[in-house]
Amino acid sequence: MSWTVIQQSLPIFEKAFWLTLKLSCYGIIGASLLGLFASFIRYFQIPVAKQLVNVYIELSRNTPLLIQLFFIYYAFPEIGLKIPAETSGIIGLIFLGGSYMAEAFSGGLDGVPKVQIESGKAIGLSNLQLARYVIFPQGLALSVPAIAANVIFLIKETSIFTVIAIPELTNTALDQIGMYYHTDESLFVLVIGYAIILIPLSLILTWLERRARYGTFGH
Amino acid sequence: MVDTLLKVEHLNKAYGTKQVLHDINFSVTPGSVTVLLGPSGSGKSTLIRCLNGLEEFQSGQLSFEDQPIKPTPKTWQQLRQKIGMVFQSYDLFPNLTVIDNILLGPLKVQKRSKTEALKQATQLLKEVDLTDYADAFPRQLSGGQKQRIAIVRALALNPEFMLFDEVTASLDPEMVRGVLEVMLNLAKRKMTMLVVTHEMNFAQQIADNVLFLEDGAILEQTPGKQFFTQPQTDRAREFLDSMAF
Lengths: 219, 245
Ligand SMILES: Nc1ncnc2c1ncn2[C@@H]1O[C@H](COP(=O)(O)OP(=O)(O)OP(=O)(O)O)[C@@H](O)[C@H]1O
Ligand SMILES: [Mg+2]
Prior knowledge:
The structure holds two protein chains of two kinds.
Chain A: H1 3-43, H2 49-61, H3 65-75, H4 85-110, H5 114-122, H6 127-157, H7 169-180, H8 183-217
Chain B: E1 6-15, E2 18-28, E3 33-37, H1 44-50, E4 59-64, E5 67-68, H2 73-79, E6 83-86, H3 98-109, H4 114-127, H5 143-155, E7 161-165, H6 173-188, E8 192-196, H7 200-206, E9 209-214, E10 217-223, H8 224-229, H9 234-242
Parallel strand pairs in B: 3-8, 3-9, 6-7, 7-8
Antiparallel strand pairs in B: 1-2, 1-4, 4-5, 9-10
Helix pairs in contact in B: 3-4, 3-5, 5-6
The structure holds adenosine-5'-triphosphate (ATP) and magnesium ion.
Residues 15, 20, 38, 40-46 of chain B line the site of adenosine-5'-triphosphate (ATP).
C-alpha cells in the first residue's frame, strides 16, 4: 500500500465524501418526512390514503434500491421524465427510506401504553388532542432507536448510487480501482470515509436515543 | 339539584361470549360515596370503566343527572369532563410537567383562561401538598405523589362525579395514607364518588353505601355502616373474613 497514492487520491475522495454526506442528508430528511406523513395516515386510518400507504410500503420494502434506481434513472426517461443522476439518487433513497421510517414511527405510536390513551380520554381529550399531546410526543420518542437504525442503513445504501454513476464514495473507489488498479489504497480510503461518517453519527444517535427516552419517560 | 346523579339500569356486559356483568342496577345520590367491593375478577374495574365510556356494553341504560346517556364517542367525550377517573397505575403523561398534566384538560378541552385555570391548579396542588412540584416531570415523583397529581388532574376539570379504581393498589405501603387522605377530604367536601378499594378500614370510613359484586352480579347493596358489621349475605361475610376484616 502506498501513502503517496493515498495522498494523491484524497482530493477526489474528499469531494465524494461530501457528496455522500449531502445526498444522505437530503434522502434521510425526505424519508423521515414521508415516513411521518405515512404513519399519520395509518394512525388516523384515513380511508383510501391508508390503502395507498400500504401499497407504497409493500412496494418500497420489497424491492431493492438497485431496481428502484434503475426505474427512476433509466425507465422514467422512456416516458419523458428525465431526472439527473443525483436527484434520482435522492428520490430513490426517499422512496426506499420512507417506508422504513413509516414503520419506525408506526411502531413507536403503537408502543404508547393503553393506559396513557385511556387517561387522555378520561380527561375529555378528543382523538385529535389525544394524538397531539399524548400519543405523538411519546410515540416519536419511542421510535428514536428504530429511526437511528434507519439513518445508518440509508447512509450505507448510498453506496448503491454507484450503479447510476453518481461519484459518491463507493463509486469513486471503484473508479480508482478500475482506472489505476489502486485496489488496496482505494478500499482503505473508502472504509475510512464511511467510518468518519458512521462512527461519530452512531455515537450521537445513541446519545440521542438515551436523551429522548429519559426526557420523555425518565428511565 | 337532582336526586340521583348516576343511575345504572339492567347493565349487561360481555367480553366475547363471556358475560362479566349481569343485570347491574344501582344509583348514586349526589354527595355520596359508594364503595364497590368484591373478589378479584368479580368485574369491579369493568363496571367502573363502563361508567365513563372506556368499555362498551351490550345492553342497559345509564343516566347522568336524570339524562339518559346515549353511548356514542361524542357523548362520552363531553361527559368525561363531569365524570373524572383515576386508575391504578400511575398514569400521568410522562412527556409533560406536573402543571401541564393538570392544565391540559382545563385549557384544551374546556378552553378556560390560563390565568383562571392556573389559579385553580395552584390551589389544588396546595391541597395535596405538592406546590413545589408544579414544574417537575412525573419521573421525579414518587408513586404516591403521582397518584395525588392524577387526582388533581381529574379534579381540575371540576367534575361532578369521581371514579377511583384501586388507586392505592400499586403504591408502597407508606405512600398509601397520603392518597387516602386526599380522598377522605374530597368525601368531606361532598364530592360524589365511586371507589374500588382493597383498603378495608378506609372503605368502612368513607362508604355511605357499599355495592358488593361477585361474578359480575351485585349480591348486596347496603349502607356502609351496616355492610361491615352485619353483611346480609354469606358471601359478603366470607369476603370480609378473607380480607381479615
Ligand atoms: N379485556 C378483557 N377481555 C376479556 N376478558 C376480560 C377483559 N378484562 C377483564 N376481563 C375479565 O372480566 C372479568 C372481570 O374483570 P375485572 O378486571 O373487571 O375484575 P376486577 O373485579 O376489577 O378484578 P381485580 O380486583 O383483580 O382488579 C374477569 O373475569 C376478567 O378476566
Ligand atoms: Mg380491577
